[in-house]
Structures are given as structure tokens and as C-alpha cells.
Design brief:
Elements lengths: L1 H30 L4 H15 L1
Length: about 50
């Protein structure tokens, strides 16, 4: 039981860290740190035109 719980904790920790990194990358991209600001504006402009 002890080994299973410790291994599960390690898997959960890796998933949590991965999710935090992904969320941080998304916010940084939307913030324009990687040049994603222009792309985000284009998406916002095209979405109402499609509807």
C-alpha cells in the first residue's frame, strides 16, 4: 500500500506541475510574451465575423 500511495503521489505531482506549466504558457502566450498577442486579436476579430 505504501509503495502504491507514494507512486500515485508522484504521478499526481507530475500532472499538477504539467498543468501549471501549461496554464502559465497559455497566459504568457495570450499576454503577448511570445508574439501571440497579434494572433489572439485576429482570432477575436474573425470569431464575430463567422457568427
Amino acid at each position: 500500500m505504501g509503495d502504491d500511495s507514494s507512486s500515485n503521489t508522484g504521478v499526481v505531482a507530475i500532472l499538477v506541475i504539467f498543468l501549471i506549466v501549461v496554464l502559465a504558457a497559455v497566459f504568457a502566450w495570450r499576454g503577448g510574451m511570445f508574439g501571440g498577442g497579434k494572433t489572439d486579436i485576429n482570432v477575436d476579430v474573425n470569431t464575430p465575423a463567422t457568427k
